[in-house]
């Protein structure tokens, strides 16, 4: 029996290790993991999100978007000096944020008619808020209105 004790102990130890690994991997699969430093959902009505969205509208108004990138801009009347587009309202459809040296906001925005509530155009954009100083770091793609409103 003396010769079998080390072998028996080794088998028990291996079984314990395997069961620990097996149960640990099952538990890890159940918990969704947030990527450290990655984007996470933001509330579309959050003050900072709305501020970033307003900055985008001002930039569109002043012609900062790449020329020809957003076809809906040709159909909208712009209020001179007001930083807004006449007869429209801004809707933040989706917002995500990432903490960096400041905050990045990935926004999906829709410009809707104030009266009919019809979508006039939509786009994706990324705004960097560096402690109050805003900058558009990426002009994203134009999105079909039915893709954001439906």
TrEMBL record:
CDD domains: CY
Keywords, in A-Z order: Signal
UniProt keyword Lipid biosynthesis, yes or no: no
Signal peptide start-end: 1-27
Superkingdom, natural source: Eukaryota
InterPro entries registered for this protein in UniProt: Cystatin_dom, Cystatin_sf
A GO molecular-function descriptor: cysteine-type endopeptidase inhibitor activity
Cited SUPFAM superfamilies: Cystatin/monellin (SSF54403)
Protein name: Cystatin domain-containing protein
